Amino acid sequence: MMSWVVFWIDPKESGAQISVAITAMLTLIAYRFAVGNDMPKVSYLSRLVYFILEANFLVFASLIEVIVTSAYARIGQLDRARSIDRWARILFLVIFILIALEALVLRFGL
């Protein structure tokens, strides 16, 4: 969810957006290393690893979105960049909720 914040930062502030997205990516990488040391070594991917991979996908996708909206803002299409940000707010929230529900279903068999 940390990467979701970039969609509320104005596309004209591309430096701030990119900084938040990269910080989120680095945080996930550090988290993966920290959790990886405490997990048992198995030959398959665990549910937690799938969840972290899905989170990495969302953070990486938000970084791509930031680059696209920053490019639009730079060439003077600020309205288009802001429109993409508004759609991304909704889309990324829905995807995150689906990922979290998937994790709950797998964990508790709901």
Please describe what this structure looks like.
By secondary structure, the protein is mostly helical. The chain has helices at 14-38, 47-74, 78-108. Helix 1 runs antiparallel to helix 2. The mean pLDDT is 87. It has a single domain (2-108), classed as Neurotransmitter-gated ion-channel transmembrane domain (Methane Monooxygenase Hydroxylase, Chain G, domain 1), CATH 1.20.58.
Structure class: mainly alpha
Poorly predicted ranges: none
Mean pLDDT: 87
Q: What is the third-level CATH name, the topology?
A: Methane Monooxygenase Hydroxylase, Chain G, domain 1
Could you state the order of secondary-structure elements as H and E? HHH
Quick synopsis:
By secondary structure, the protein is an all-alpha fold. The protein contains 3 helices and no strands. Helix 1 (14-38) packs antiparallel against helix 2 (47-74) and helix 2 (47-74) runs antiparallel to helix 3.
